[in-house]
Structure formats: structure tokens, C-alpha cells
Specification:
Layout: H1 2-7, H2 9-24, H3 37-46, H4 56-111, H5 115-125, H6 129-142, H7 145-180, H8 185-191, E1 202-209, H9 218-221, E2 230-237, E3 240-243, E4 255-261, H10 262-272, E5 273-275, E6 287-293, H11 309-313, E7 316-322, E8 325-328, E9 340-346, H12 350-357, H13 361-364, H14 369-384, E10 387-388, E11 394-395, H15 398-413, E12 415-416, E13 419-420, H16 425-456, H17 460-484, H18 489-499, H19 503-513, H20 517-543
Antiparallel strand pairs: 1-4, 1-5, 2-3, 2-4, 6-9, 7-8, 7-9, 10-11, 12-13
Helix pairs in contact: 2-3, 3-16, 4-5, 4-15, 4-16, 4-17, 4-20, 5-6, 5-7, 5-17, 5-20, 6-7, 6-20, 7-16, 7-17, 7-19, 14-15, 15-20, 17-18, 18-19, 18-20, 19-20
Length: 545
């Protein structure tokens, strides 16, 4: 069977993927590895034979697709999150990495490790392949041909031994501490709804207006803090029912429907008057409502306010459903393919509104391969750009950094002229899942044999040193970040994955949180984490004997 798998890499890929996925779905005491189990199945199967490894192109393709789709999904919320606490978060992550480097130096002194082994230990315990690549480049340029093979072996062996625990320890730290702290991911998501990547439980309540608000329009009213997280749907004045638009004024005696989170709606009711038992939202005699798929390229990538729905159709969008969650359809939101909008409009105009948004599920199942390929190509080109570092060396963002950066930028843009960069939500999730499985299966089988053989040949010291370094880095990041800096566990687990520059940890964090928030944390610190680890690994290589 071993020979069959070696001779048939596609069979090997799907054996690893299927077995890992089945094992990842098993729950033991409430703990599930999820998709990360594919990595450990790959390690186990790869340890059987040195030739039991998937072609590099599978690992690379998976990595590229995964980070690019993460960038697309996280782009809209990334820049908002970075403006909030971006500098603080990056300084914090940098401090943790420097602390981990200090532990590596201590381990090198204690166990008499060489500079090459120390650099490999840092790269493996913090799972950063670009750092290892930089170390190998420096060794190649500064070592004689006679000593080159032995010099290269030191960081590679240390990296391969420390790498697996560099993944597993991070996953275990997230799992244990979220249980210990009784993390409520749903509550965290509600508190971070302004980032636009999490849903909320929305209420549709009817209010009888008793207070005089003055002769102000709804547009002016929405600028007041109490009204900033709600929308108005219908208004009944005397016997006339109409859709509330920005030009509408609200007067005592009116009956209006208010949509928003429960606590926000409660404040608005208190401000306007009193709750009414009348189900205004169910009166469909004159005003109708409908859920409509966003599939037309004319609206994708545009802000709701720019569509001028009230002027064109006398309509208003009250809710936007992206994936499995509803969010309040605020005017600044940018539509993505696959969104479902809840539209309130006069019955006679509903067909025109539906046509305007597209409402074609079939078109959402088709990916624009040209645009998708263009985005990845741009990412790969950016990854090839040499970036100068102190000391005359350079580094590249590579296969992981380039596509991630470009994905964040074009994801935030949404569209450029006629080019729509965003993917339908379901297509993005599918490609992301396929990408991470290819990546984990590839890296697992690549590392399995060297890990097992090196461990058996006396790699215990490096293994345990790497495990301690990774575990301390994970615990310090989570404890200080959550308890001292008050960062939500959803975002912080993504930051931990970004510190580790590790897609497997990000995939696990995303499964635990059930939102896109870990992606924001990952993307916010990934560039600084990558650059700093490349620099520090070079320093360890050249400063230790």
C-alpha cells in the first residue's frame, strides 16, 4: 500500500484529506481538531517513507488559494479594524516574537545549540517558512561548498522537529483557554458588529410616536447617536401606509416599524414614544417585502446609499444576509455577490427592484475565473518584489504574503470599474476550505518522515525546547491580549495565528469563533510578524556560534 500511495500522489492526497477530515470531525470531551487534523494525518502517513510526500505544487496551490480568499473575505473589515487598534496590536505581537527569540537564545546557551539550529528552532516553533528560507539563503552565500550540506542541515532539521508542535500547541492553547474563560463568541461578535463581518439578532418592532421630534427628516434623525444602529421600514399616518425614506419626517401619532438589535430598538422606542401591538411589518396590502439575491454586476461592489433605491423605486433595504447571519443594512455597506437583501417597497415596484438586484442563484454558482486568476497573479507578482532589510539583505512576501496583501486590498475595494473582485460568499468558503486542505495535506506529508526520523535520532531536546517556546508564546499572547489589553478572543485567536503565520491555526480559530473576526486579527499582524521573524532568525544565525 505504501508503494501504491508513493506512485499515485493524487490518491495520497485524497486519502490524507478524507482521513483527516473524518478524524477532525470526532469530538472527544468537546474537543475537535477540525480541518487541522489533515495536517497530523499527513505527518503520520508521511513518516512511513521518505518518498511519501505530495508534490510541492499541491502545497503551494493550497496556500495561495487559502490566503487570497481569506484576504478577500477580510478586506472590507480589515482597514476598519486596523484603524481601531492596529499599531497597539502589532507592537504587542512584535514584543511576543522578541520574547520568543529570547527563549531561543536561552535554549541555545543551555543545550549548546549552534546558530543554525537556533535559527531553525525559531522558524519551526513559530512556523515561519520564509524565515527558514532567509536563513538558508544566507548560509548558501557565506559557506564554502565543502561545508554547505552540513550547514544547511542544521536549521532544516531543527525546523522540521519544532514545526509540528508549533501548530498543535497553538491550537491546544486556544481550545483550553476559551473553555477556561467560558468565552461567548456570539456576545463578542455582537460587540464588534461595527466591523461589518458579524451578524446580530435583529428585531422588527412597531412604535407609536408620542414625542415631537421637530421638523427633521429621517436622514437628519439618523445622525443622532440613539438612532445610528436602527432602520425604519414602514410608516402609517392616518390610513396611509408608506415606505420610510431619508426624506420622511416622523410626527406624533405616526406608527412606524423599527428594525435593529433588541437593546438598540428598546432605546429608540423609549425616545419616540411607546411600543405598539400592531404588526405593521405584516401589512402587505400596499407595501411588500422580499428577500432578493444580489447577483447583478451593476450593484455588486457598490454602497447601498449609492443605489438611490428610494428615488428609483420608493424602496428601502432593511437587512442584509451574508452567509448564515443577518446584519442591519446600513447605508455605507458594500454589496457582495451572494448577499441576500430584504427589501421593503410598494407592491407595484417589487418586480423592478428584484430585476435591479439580479436575484439569480445560478449566476452566483459561476466564478469569474478571469478575475479570480488576475487577483492571484497580482498577488504572486507582489510576492516576488524584493524588499530591502538592514544589512543589505532583502526578503519577499512570497506565496503567502503577496496574495494575502492583494486579497485584502481588492477585497476592500470590492470592484474597480467593471471588474468585480469579490467572490460569492459560498464560493469563497468552498475555495478557502479546498485551499487549506491542500496546504495541510502537502505540508504534513512533506514534514512527516524528517520529523519522525530526526525525533528518533535524538531530536528530543529541540522538540521539547520548541514545544516550550511555542506554548509560552501562545499562553502569553492569549492571557495578556485578552485579560490586559481586552482584545476579544475572536480577534485575538486570529492574531495568534498571524503571529504564528500559520493557516492551520487560523482555520481552527475560525471554526471555534464561527465568524470572520479571526481573519481580521490574522491579516492585521501577519506582515509585521513575517518581517520580524525573518530579521530575528538572521540575527540568531550570525550572532550565535
Amino acid at each position: 500500500m505504501v508503494d501504491v500511495l508513493i506512485e499515485n500522489p493524487m490518491l495520497l492526497l485524497f486519502v490524507v484529506a478524507a482521513t483527516g477530515y473524518l478524524i477532525g470531525g470526532l469530538s472527544i470531551g468537546g474537543f475537535r481538531l477540525g480541518v487541522a487534523a489533515v495536517l497530523f494525518v499527513g505527518l503520520a502517513i508521511g513518516s512511513l517513507d521518505p518518498e511519501m510526500r505530495l508534490p510541492d505544487v499541491i502545497f503551494q496551490l493550497g496556500l495561495i488559494v487559502f490566503v487570497y480568499t481569506v484576504g478577500l473575505a477580510g478586506g472590507p473589515g480589515f482597514f476598519a479594524a486596523f484603524r481601531r487598534k492596529g499599531l497597539r496590536d502589532n507592537v504587542f505581537v512584535l514584543a511576543v516574537i522578541v520574547g520568543a527569540a529570547g527563549l531561543v537564545v536561552a535554549a541555545a546557551r543551555l543545550f549548546d545549540l549552534t546558530g543554525g539550529q537556533a535559527a531553525g528552532l525559531l522558524s519551526g516553533s513559530l512556523t515561519n517558512t520564509p524565515a527558514l528560507a532567509g536563513v538558508l539563503q544566507t548560509i548558501t552565500e557565506t559557506t564554502s561548498a565543502a561545508q554547505l550540506d552540513a550547514a544547511i542541515a542544521e536549521p532544516v532539521v531543527a525546523y522540521s522537529v519544532a514545526y509540528p508542535m508549533g501548530v498543535l500547541a497553538m491550537i491546544l492553547a486556544i481550545f483550553v483557554l476559551q473553555r477556561l474563560w467560558h468565552i461567548d463568541y456570539a456576545a463578542e461578535a455582537h460587540g464588534l458588529r461595527d466591523l461589518g463581518v458579524v451578524g446580530e439578532e435583529l428585531q422588527d418592532r412597531t412604535v407609536r410616536v408620542a414625542h415631537d421630534l421637530g421638523a427633521v427628516t429621517v436622514s437628519e434623525l439618523m445622525k443622532q447617536p440613539v438612532f445610528q444602529h436602527v432602520l425604519f421600514g414602514r410608516l402609517r399616518r392616518d390610513d396611509h401606509l408608506e415606505v420610510v425614506t431619508g426624506r420622511t419626517t416622523i410626527a406624533p401619532g405616526d406608527v412606524v416599524s423599527v428594525i435593529g438589535a433588541d437593546d438598540d430598538v428598546a432605546r429608540v422606542i423609549e425616545h419616540l414614544g411607546e411600543a405598539s401591538d400592531e404588526a405593521l411589518m405584516l401589512d402587505r396590502a400596499e407595501i411588500d417585502f422580499r428577500r432578493i439575491f444580489v447577483s447583478s454586476n451593476d450593484v455588486v461592489g457598490r454602497r447601498l446609499r449609492d443605489l438611490r433605491l428610494s428615488e428609483r423605486f420608493g424602496a428601502v433595504v432593511t437587512r442584509l444576509r451574508r452567509g448564515d447571519v443577518d446584519v442591519l443594512a446600513e447605508p455605507h455597506m458594500v454589496l457582495q455577490p451572494g448577499d441576500r437583501v430584504r427589501v421593503v417597497a410598494p407592491r407595484d415596484n417589487m418586480a423592478a427592484v428584484t430585476s435591479f438586484f439580479g436575484d439569480s442563484y445560478r449566476s452566483l454558482s459561476e466564478i469569474d475565473v478571469g478575475v479570480f486568476g488576475l487577483g492571484i497573479a497580482l498577488g504572486l507578482l507582489v510576492g516576488l518584489i524584493p524588499i530591502p532589510l538592514p544589512g543589505g539583505t532583502t526578503f519577499e512576501l512570497g506565496l503567502a504574503g503577496g496574495p494575502l496583501v492583494v486579497g485584502l486590498i481588492v477585497g476592500a475595494l470590492g470592484r474597480t470599474g467593471p471588474i468585480v473582485w469579490q467572490l460569492p460568499y459560498n464560493a469563497n468558503l468552498t475555495l478557502r476550505q479546498v485551499g487549506v486542505i491542500l496546504f495541510l495535506a502537502g505540508v504534513g506529508t512533506r514534514s512527516g518522515y524528517s520529523f519522525a526520523s530526526t525525533f528518533a535520532d535524538g531530536g528530543l531536546v529541540i522538540f521539547f525546547a520548541g514545544a516550550v517556546i511555542t506554548s509560552l508564546a501562545a499562553v502569553v499572547t492569549l492571557v495578556v491580549g485578552h485579560k490586559v489589553l481586552k482584545i476579544s478572543m475572536s480577534v485575538l485567536s486570529g492574531m495568534l495565528a498571524g503571529l504564528q503565520t500559520q493557516p492551520a491555526v487560523l482555520a481552527f480559530a475560525g471554526e471555534q469563533a464561527g465568524t470572520e473576526l479571526p481573519n481580521l486579527g490574522y491579516a492585521a499582524v501577519y506582515p509585521v510578524a513575517t518581517i520580524s521573524k525573518i530579521l530575528i532568525a538572521q540575527i540568531l544565525l550570525t550572532s550565535l556560534p
